[in-house]
# Entry
Amino acid sequence: MSEATNEGPASPAANRQRIAYWLIAPAVVWMVLFLVLPIAMMVYVSFWTQTTFTIEPTLTVKSWVTFFTSETYLAALWTTVRIWLTVLAATLLIGYPAALFVGLFVRNRTLQTALLVLCVIPFWTSFLIRVLAWRPMLGKEGAINIVLQGLGITSQPIEALLFSELSVVIGMTQIYCVFMVGPIAFTLARIDLNVIEAARDLGAGFLRIFRTIILPLSMPGVVVGSIFVSVMVLGEFATSAALSGRKVNMLGNIIVTQVGSLKWAFAAVVGVVLTVIMGIVVAGLLRIVNLRKEL
Amino acid sequence: MQSTVIKPVLAIYTGLFLLFLYGPFAVLTILSFQAGPEGGPQFPIIEWSTYWYRHLVGLTPPSRVAPLPIYEGLLRSLTLAFMTMVVSTVLGVASAQAFRSRFKGSGLVFYLIVLGMMVPGVLVGLGMALVANFLGIDRHWWSTAFVLHVVYTLPFAFLVMLAIFNRFDASVEEAAWSLGVSPARTFRKVTFPLIFPGVLSAMLFAFTLSYDEFSRTLFASGRDLTLPLAIYGTFSIEIHPNVFAFGVLTTLFSFALLAVYAVLMGLSVRRARRFAIQEDVA
# Structure
């Protein structure tokens, strides 16, 4: 590639670059206007003065003080972090073995694709209906309790299954674990089997091969999956509203409530806190893996 | 690998995993055949019936259970998804095409676009509602909600197209250029047919993501409800199996969409193969 600058504006390289700018401009304008601007607006409004019924553009940190001194808000912050970490761990632990099987052990491409498609099919039902479907699963007379009692494992229904933090975690794990399985399976499918073959010829056992070859090579998939799951769980409010009977409040639920009562400044503060947490999480994960190289 | 032990164990595990994925779906399908209007969304099944399906289309006598307010929402959601699909696919293809030549600031632009799928919907929704309030603009599903849907689906279209272009053999384009074909015509006649499978995937992504998108729409869409918002409305009242019947029907609709996609994909792959064979012969 010759990137000489003294060729004048008509050189092919400069020409191509000009076309590239024209091609990228609409997307950049769109993103700046409808993504960056709203987020900047949120930061700005979080410093507005909020009274019971009105909001004025007089700058103050009062809403911020309210957030960090209120037990409700801090509890929601803690709940969000706790549920996020639990769901992240659960999707990884439950999803990894399935991804290992699909990505590494099934080498028939058709079967591999079929299995992945099978994982994706439940996602063709509306997200909200999938959330609602967990109610008859987990309820006192729900499917799980019926099966457990039918098998004689429990003698009476487990009531803690529904309208608790547990139900929120179970629901989110099922809804989001495919976003973990997919990326991991893709990275595993790209591993050169000869490397594993060579390791085995040299006498390495499965655990050793897993620890020194498979696991490190699957890390990009784990990171990408973790980003997907983290981003979605951190911004959640519907699953916790539907499956906890509004007992479990995440930051997302607080935003919805505040917007509902027209407390825009408080909603904006919670929004900024959520944005910061998400930024730290994603930036931290991206430090482990270069996303652009993984395409 | 020690297939004798590990492979069967993992195979059984994957079976259980699929069971876990399909459990709620199975339950929702079974309960959609609950007797109505007294049968609730829980076990046991009092009597098998198609009552809730008939209820959905208004073929049952009036009862205390209000019909789901879905029809206008369905129309809006389909229109919105279609608009989103067209705009985000066009922008996605253009952006990915731009990324094929190196330009200053491409790293920043990459993260700017990818940010669209990273930021939780409730945050952009809130931000957009604040902007609309500030500027005194009315919020509608076809305006404020629509632009947010594109913000969400454009990164998917962009990444799909980027992956396609990564595996793209540019020599066919260069051949066309060197024969004096204009860049625009080269794109239409050579590049586009070759990337068409990718474009289809991008369209499918954008359509389905927008059709089911809910957290961005909640604050940004104003008075008129889209389909997911209509379903969200049932959260606050008692739910009935009509929601489940509707879930089954929409899933069937999704499969129809997937079938269309598969057929188009098959056709375009076959065409690409024929193209390759012709090249070999030539």
